[in-house]
Specification:
This protein is α/β, with parallel strands linked by helices. The protein has helices at residues 2-10, 30-43, 60-65, 80-90, 153-166, 171-191; strands spanning 18-23, 48-52, 96-102, 107-115, 121-126, 145-150, 198-201. The protein has one domain (2-200): Rossmann fold (3-Layer(aba) Sandwich), CATH 3.40.50.300. The radius of gyration is 17 Å and the shape is globular. The two termini are 15 Å apart.
């Protein structure tokens, strides 16, 4: 962890702020690691904010209208243009509001969090921050440091099923949801990703 923090602080900002991308498949531990890193950087006197990509989920009614509700979490179910605009703005010296995703209500909430002007480092976390696909691959030009979290598929499957069980699904339903959507997305990000500056293996949650 100390070496990782040193690597982040050594990364050169491409603008006013240092943008660190934490990318990886669903349930690999991105959110947990992002919060931990931000807390440690704050304690060391470096103003830091975590910005999850999930705030840019398209609303369920839009996904329903487009026949994509069952694929929620796939690249095409995000407002990638809106996210790219936010990423570009984060490099500038200004206060920036951003949306967050409420998992309990399954909706994105606009302007729910803020990156202060004094913030020096932003840790962005999401599945597709290193996706090698149109509209997504341009994000990498803003990363001061990119980190890929590599976790074996069997571990991901176990974590994803457990996640759906916590949300109230029956065991068969949880396994089906994980197999038909989440693990498909995990395979995609693993097969079509840009090179990361660092790779962390076996990340815990």
């Amino acid at each position: 962890m100390d070496e990782l923090l040193e690597g982040i602080l050594a990364a050169r900002p491409k603008g006013h702020r240092r943008l660190v991308a934490l990318a990886g498949p669903p349930a690999c531990g991105k959110s947990t690691l992002a919060v931990d890193l931000a807390a440690r950087l704050e304690q060391a006197g470096h103003p830091t904010k975590v910005v999850p990509m999930d705030g840019f989920h398209l609303h369920n009614q839009i996904l329903l209208d487009r026949g994509l509700l069952s694929r929620k979490g796939a690249p095409e179910t995000f407002d990638v243009a809106g996210f790219a605009s936010l990423v570009a703005r984060l490099t500038k010296k200004q206060e920036i509001f951003f949306p967050v995703f409420d998992r309990q209500r399954d909706i994105a909430i606009a302007g729910a969090e803020v990156v202060s002007e004094a913030c020096q480092t932003v840790i962005l976390e999401g599945n597709y921050l290193l996706l090698d696909a149109p509209e997504w691959r341009g994000l990498c030009e803003h990363w001061s440091l990119s980190i890929w979290l590599d976790v074996p598929f069997p571990v991901l499957r176990e974590r994803l099923i457990k996640r759906w069980l916590v949300h109230g699904l029956m065991p068969e339903e949880a396994a089906q949801r994980a197999e038909e959507n989440d693990l498909r997305n995990a395979a995609l990000v693993g097969e079509a990703r840009l090179k990361a500056d660092l790779i962390l293996r076996g990340v815990s949650v």
